[in-house]
């Protein structure tokens, strides 16, 4: 093509720019996904999940205070923290993982969160968790790992503000240990200490003290926590504690710099995992070790297996591995069941790894080819776009984003009229009137992500359909970091 005049040149450039803008906005089949808005909502979700007394700057106004005397039966103050999902139980094991992932999101994407004015909200979300965990860890070898009873809680449909169910508190200690729970909580404390170190050194060092004590407890008292907190077995049964010990040791090394924490790395790297979750942290440890190898803080010759295993997982997600993760026709990774929580953790790993590759000008090899940082970002965007509405049902699985989102998420508080509008207590069984209603939830649970579609990209937006319609706190935490990154990369 020949361009003869300056006017033609400028109109040619104008055309190119317009085309690019069009492709950016329409190219992926959705009008536009506002990652910044999704990020904002992801952090509002943690305010809606708050237990205890609410602070003056609480933005989610349909919630009120609740469960103020949690822990009193056991003679401890366990007020605060987060409700786990659509129920009103505080399950310590996924809770701690949520805090670790919120912290990891904030550590890797701090600059982006700051740029989007969300860093303070992310730090508040973490601190709401760690303030509670401090109370839950009153002695070096005592950790409360659950408040509320899953069975009696699930038998009722009540706002947290109205709860009439028993609120027993369950702990691990020397006689009844739980190395997985203690180590995951150590990881949460250690990761959070890195978040607070630059701005609040006193708090960061308090968190680190708890982290060290819990890691020592976990290392010396073996066993899975549901043998001690048997009430958790039905809901969050842990498959082992070796992965938490490994993952916690890397977080402890990152936050203290003490070489002794590397001893745990002499054991197994865990091999190539099939997912990263509240139960399986090997991949998280592998990726953090890779970062330390990139930084030349750890020796590739000694720890290379961790990096290799982590990269093979990513290869499988990108469909370039030996055991690729199944994808739905609509393009969503399909792990074990309807559960976007595995998609958000895997996507977080890809997004974070993309940052490492960029920072250290690196690539890596999959059986199906060499991976560049941008390949990881494109993949991450594809999964997030699916979750936020670019899918065969055009549905945003994040509540409150756009207009087509799950209107009946399985969530007690969101499905019952706000206590601020109708203060009349809702009884245990009376609440089923709301459960049975075919109306949309009266309170929009902004930022919650439903478990999601089935393997055929279908979704039944029905409150009773908890397999698909229940949101959990673990699902949104990795999204905080991913969305911060995407909001700045794809403006
Ligand atoms: C974030 O959400 C809050 C509450 O809905 C809203 O007031 C604020 O304008 C939002 N900010 C951005 C940047 O979207
Ligand atoms: C989704 O949106 C596309 C494009 O606007 C449209 O062709 C398709 O019919 C929609 N699908 C559903 C299930 O609404
Ligand atoms: C809700 O529906 C169930 C069965 O679908 C019924 O047994 C129950 O009585 C209903 N509860 C209320 C309060 O409407």
Automatic annotation (TrEMBL):
Residues 1-27 form the signal peptide. SUPFAM superfamilies: Six-hairpin glycosidases. It comes from the Eukaryota. GO terms for biological process: cellulose catabolic process. Pfam families: Glyco_hydro_9. The active site is at residue 410. Keywords: Carbohydrate metabolism, Cellulose degradation, Glycosidase, Hydrolase, Polysaccharide degradation, Signal. Belongs to the glycosyl hydrolase 9 (cellulase E) family. This is Endoglucanase. It comes from Lithocarpus litseifolius.
């Amino acid at each position: 093509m020949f361009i003869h005049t300056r006017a033609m040149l400028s109109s040619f450039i104008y055309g190119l720019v317009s085309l690019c803008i069009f492709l950016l906005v329409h190219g992926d089949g959705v009008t536009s996904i506002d990652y910044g808005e999704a990020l904002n909502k992801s952090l509002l979700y943690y305010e809606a999940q708050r237990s205890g007394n609410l602070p003056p700057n609480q933005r989610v106004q349909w919630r009120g205070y609740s469960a103020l005397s949690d822990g009193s039966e056991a003679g401890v103050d366990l007020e605060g923290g987060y409700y786990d999902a659509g129920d009103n139980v505080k399950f310590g094991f996924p809770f701690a993982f949520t805090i670790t992932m919120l912290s990891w999101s904030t550590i890797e994407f701090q600059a982006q969160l700051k740029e989007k004015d969300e860093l303070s909200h992310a730090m508040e979300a973490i601190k709401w968790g760690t303030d509670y965990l401090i109370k839950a860890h009153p002695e070096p070898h005592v950790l409360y790992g659950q408040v509320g009873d899953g069975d009696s809680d699930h038998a009722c449909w009540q706002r947290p503000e109205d709860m009439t169910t028993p609120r027993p508190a369950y702990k691990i200690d020397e006689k009844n240990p739980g190395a997985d729970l203690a180590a995951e909580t150590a990881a949460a404390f250690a990761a959070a200490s890195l978040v607070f170190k630059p701005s609040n050194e006193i708090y960061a060092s308090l968190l680190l003290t708890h982290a060290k004590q819990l890691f020592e407890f976990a290392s010396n008292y073996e066993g899975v926590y549901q043998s001690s907190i048997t009430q958790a077995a039905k809901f969050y049964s842990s498959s082992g504690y070796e992965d938490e010990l490994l993952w916690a040791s890397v977080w402890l090394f990152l936050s203290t710099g003490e070489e002794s924490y590397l001893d745990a790395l002499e054991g197994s790297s865990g091999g190539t995992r099939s997912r990263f979750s509240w139960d399986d942290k090997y991949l998280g440890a592998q990726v953090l070790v890779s970062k330390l190898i990139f930084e030349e803080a750890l020796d590739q010759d000694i720890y290379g297996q961790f990096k290799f295993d982590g990269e093979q997982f990513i290869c499988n997600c990108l469909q370039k591995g030996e055991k690729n993760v199944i994808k739905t026709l609509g393009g969503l990774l399909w792990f074990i069941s309807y559960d976007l929580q595995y998609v958000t953790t895997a996507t977080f790993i890809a997004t974070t790894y993309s940052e490492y590759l960029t920072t250290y000008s690196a690539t890596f090899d999959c059986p199906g080819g060499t991976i560049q940082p941008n390949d990881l970002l494109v993949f991450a965007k594809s999964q997030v776009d699916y979750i936020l509405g670019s899918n065969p049902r055009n549905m945003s699985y994040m509540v409150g984003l756009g207009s087509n989102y799950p209107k009946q998420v399985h969530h007690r508080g969101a499905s019952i009229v706000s206590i601020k509008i109708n203060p009349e207590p809702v009884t245990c069984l009376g609440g089923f009137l709301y459960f049975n209603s075919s109306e949309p939830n009266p309170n929009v649970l902004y930022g919650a992500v439903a478990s999601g579609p089935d393997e055929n990209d279908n979704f039944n937006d029905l409150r009773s359909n908890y397999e698909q319609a229940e949101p959990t706190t673990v699902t949104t935490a990795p999204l905080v970091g991913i969305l911060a990154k995407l909001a700045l990369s794809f403006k």
